């Protein structure tokens, strides 16, 4: 019986994560999230030769999703992206929509 409870718990967690993800995609920065997701591995790897860029990319994506879901202002989003560091800013510069939205970050 314990196994079925853990499966049910995992399913509830997955449903909650999917709902949050959906809210982000239909939120304020949905198009920008799509554009970030459209970057190829090669485009991201051009930034640094190690895995740092992928880790920062993942953080950046999370920040933009959260901003979209919570309707965070462009100024606050720009501030949060700058706080992620130069690699995050360089990733943003590879996207037309997010970069144009935030101006010269």
Structure description:
The protein is mostly helical. The chain has one domain (2-102). Helix content is 76%, strand content 0%. α1 packs across α4. The longest helix is centred in the first third of the chain and has 24 residues, at 2-25.
Summarize the structure.
It is built from seven helices and no strands.
Query: What's the total count of β strands?
Result: 0
Question: How many separate structural domains?
Answer: 1
Overall morphology = globular
Helix content: over 70%
Enumerate how many helices there are, as a single number: 7
Instruction: Write down the secondary-structure element order.
Output: HHHHHHH
Decide which structural class fits the backbone. Answer: mainly alpha
Main sheet characteristics: none
Chain oligomer state: single chain
Element layout with pairings:
Layout (H helix, E strand, L loop, with lengths): L1 H24 L4 H8 L3 H5 L6 H18 L4 H11 L1 H7 L3 H7 L3
